[in-house]
Recover the amino acids of this structure.
């Protein structure tokens, strides 16, 4: 086994050296600009090759019963700039689902598309309109494979909760969900990954303070099927914002808030008489902190979310993580992340609405060149009480950047 790993490493290193010049030439060829910086267009991309080896049922948002699951992903980015005031961005992906396995036969989507207007010459105020990542928290800034030290998202962004957006269930049925395997097709996480919902935002920076406020058509927990306003319209409104503060170059602190309905229109026929699907909100508060110095980078988030559940009442979850990355040299890095979730009681009972749990993630990465890197991740998780999910998870990822 050791010999195989050494041969694989040498093969990847040789391949990256041979491809380096070609990828650099491709990158230059995909960028067009006028002699002055008035107009610019840039086409870039990421090619991810991922291999997942989960203990089934798999943890998180990996939707497969296979013992080994291969997930290729091609992401193309188109950036357009007209003067310093107007910009546009588009992200198209071809893969086996926004989360691996949700479209096992493959699909192509526009995950992001937006225009930005910068009315002044500084960063005081900017406006954005379209479909884009949430302003909540700080993990979305490193959500793509090239920036993410890990292969998966933190627990708060991909661990399924026994709340669903497609209909109401009796109280007894809701409590019983604690002991069932996660239903990724109807249940929801606290935040669904980067939450590429549609809407408008205003954001900017004033000295050490930055801000972002947005209005979108779907809640933080909403599934990808709800995000695109062109396909689904605008049935509900969610308000989200974040205030950040940089007291020193090494530090970035922030606080976030989000509030809006999480049920889909299809849930209306299952609700108690006299209620409306827009009456049931998800309200979320969060704190985030980041520190960077030398070879060290540390990120953390702590959040709490309250779901108003039909036939149940308001239920609350706390979730957080502490993530650390250390660069061994210019090419190697190691990273560790501790995730934790705690659940409150169902109103009128002494019973928690889900099982408290933790997950530990460790990863090692190697950057062969400016366009080629590889990662290996192992995760172990545990829940209190009877746990129906797999507790072990291994993943590998190769990324080509162009």
């Amino acid at each position: 086994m050791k010999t195989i790993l050494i041969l694989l490493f040498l093969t990847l290193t040789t391949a990256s050296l041979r491809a380096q010049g070609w990828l650099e030439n491709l990158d230059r060829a995909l960028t067009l600009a006028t002699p002055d910086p008035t107009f610019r267009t840039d086409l870039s991309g990421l090619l991810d090759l991922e291999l997942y080896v989960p203990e089934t049922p798999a943890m998180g948002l990996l939707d497969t019963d296979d013992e080994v699951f291969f997930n290729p992903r091609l992401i193309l980015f188109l950036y357009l700039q007209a003067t310093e005031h107007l910009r546009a961005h588009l992200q198209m992906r071809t893969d086996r689902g926004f989360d691996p396995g949700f479209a096992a036969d493959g699909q192509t989507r526009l995950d992001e598309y937006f225009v930005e207007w910068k009315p002044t010459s500084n960063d005081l105020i900017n406006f954005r309109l379209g479909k884009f990542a949430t302003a909540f928290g700080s993990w979305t800034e490193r959500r793509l494979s090239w920036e993410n030290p890990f292969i998966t998202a933190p627990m708060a962004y991909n661990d399924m909760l026994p709340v669903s957006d497609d209909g109401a269930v009796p109280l007894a049925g809701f409590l019983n969900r604690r002991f069932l395997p996660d239903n990724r097709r109807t249940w929801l996480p606290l935040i669904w990954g980067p939450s590429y919902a549609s809407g408008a935002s205003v954001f900017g920076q004033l000295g050490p303070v930055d801000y972002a406020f947005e209005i979108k058509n779907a809640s933080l927990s909403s599934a990808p099927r709800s995000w695109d306003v062109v396909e689904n319209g605008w049935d509900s409104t969610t308000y989200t914002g974040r205030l950040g503060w940089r007291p020193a170059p090494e530090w970035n602190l922030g606080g976030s808030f989000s509030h809006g309905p999480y049920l889909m229109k299809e849930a209306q026929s299952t609700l108690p008489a006299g209620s409306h699907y827009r009456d049931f909100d998800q309200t979320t508060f969060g704190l985030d902190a980041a520190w960077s110095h030398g070879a060290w980078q540390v990120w953390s988030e702590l959040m709490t979310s309250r779901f108003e559940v039909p036939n149940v009442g308001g239920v609350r979850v706390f979730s957080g993580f502490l993530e650390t990355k250390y660069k061994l040299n210019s090419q190697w890095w190691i990273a560790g992340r501790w995730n934790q979730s705690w659940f409150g009681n169902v109103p009128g009972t002494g019973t928690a609405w889900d099982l408290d749990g933790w997950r530990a993630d460790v990863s090692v990465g190697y950057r062969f060149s400016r366009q080629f890197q590889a990662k290996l991740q192992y995760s172990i998780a545990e829940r209190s009480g009877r746990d129906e999910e797999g507790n072990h998870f291994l993943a590998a990822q190769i990324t080509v950047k162009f």
